[in-house]
Amino acid sequence: MNALEALLARERRRLVALLARHLGLAQLALAEDAVQQACLQAVQTWPRDGTPSNPAAWLYRVAQRAAIDQLRLDRHRAAWPEDEAELPQLQPLPGRLTRELDDDELALLFAACHPALPAASQVLLALRVLGGFELAALAPLFFSTEAALAQRLARARRDLAGCELALPAGAELPPRREAVMTALALGFHQGQQAAAREAREVGGEAGNKALEVCWEAIRLARALAAHAATAAPEADALAALLLLHGARLTGRTDAHGDIVPLPGQARDRWDAGLIRLGFAHLADSQRGSSLSRWHLLAGIAAEHARAPRYEATDWAAIVGYYEALLPLDPSAAPRLGHAIALAEAGAPQAALGRLRAMQDEVPAALRAHHAAALSRAAERTGDLALARSALQQAIAAAPHPAEALRLQRRLADLS
Where would I find the DUF6596 domain in this sequence (predicted)? Predict the structure, then answer.
């Protein structure tokens, strides 16, 4: 990602939040479109004319004028400051985790997770706010189609008309905070998957533009844990989870852009600074009296982070975390993780039983992972025919070529 692309990715959400505050949430789509127009104009003019001294303010002014033009076309009226001195002056700071949170950013995420919307629409809108993800990429997460998500997104924006862009308080806060945390975790996951695809397409790590979404999800999770209105042990647990997964991003692909599975990752390539931050947030998360799914997921990530090598991983502890997690979240992903941990902990027959029991209810997004886990468990029991057959199913269901290539190499080893 070049410097211009990085700046635009970093400022997009801040500008949408600020413009949405002025326009009102009913015009959230207009705010997004106006900021996109400003970014396109920057890509066209800055390389030729030079980057402005205050790039964020330049983008805001261009987006603001685009929004005004559209409002005039729609015969709406809005009051805007004429004097440029009255325009908000945004001062972006460098660094992938150091920039301070703008309250408008956090308020926009909480507005997206408004109780007036169905739970799935809250997370969908928050994901769009977070990373501007294409609906085609989000459709598998919601077991839906791109067209259906577009309709749901349009309804959500209409339903928010008249809602205030502000942080909630009292009884409204915890459920909306949970929806925001879910969106941040899903956003990180989507960025991670997109980064693997991009690395393969460009033949290395340098093209991982999608990692910017991962860093933003981490930054917002840490800000959520630090903000006076939103701080909670669960928020620290989420920050720990994303930091510990973020630390491993540098080891997930090799110089050719191929995916490196966890057993083969060089742990000296993991980011030690992010691991330390993750453990600090994990310690802070223990100040509460309740155990959330975020605590348990962070505990699993911590076991991987503290193991000096893959063979030294405490799989029995990870199995215990999953067994505590399943009553809180019995969905397919933790059930699959539990089965994988059982196989690694020395109970491959039990793992096979659990994987077969869930075979008919595995969502499309997890089919390749499920088949690969079935193959690994079968291999550990000595059933190489089943291991090869399951691996062929995993290759057929692989979501992108980088994953398929990794599985094909494993099949070659089995053969």
Answer: 176-285
Residue 218 lies in a domain: no
**Is 114 a member of any domain?**
no
How does residue 79 score in pLDDT terms, banded at 50, 70 and 90? very low
pTM for the full model? Answer: 0.77
Per-residue pLDDT, 326 = 96
Residue 221 domain-assigned (yes or no): no
Tell me if 80 sits within 8 A of 68, measured CB to CB: yes
Domain region containing 18 = 3-79
Q: Per the structure, how many domains does the chain have?
A: 1
d(C-alpha 11, C-alpha 135), whole Å:
21
Nearest CA among 90, 227, 237 for reference residue 168:
227
Count Cβ atoms below 10 Å from residue 6 Cβ, excluding itself: 14
Looking at 28-32, 194-198, 308-312, 405-409, which range is the least confident one?
A: 194-198
Average pLDDT over residues 130-148: 77
- Beta-carbon contacts of 362 under 8 Å, excluding residues fewer than 6 positions away, are 332, 336, 370
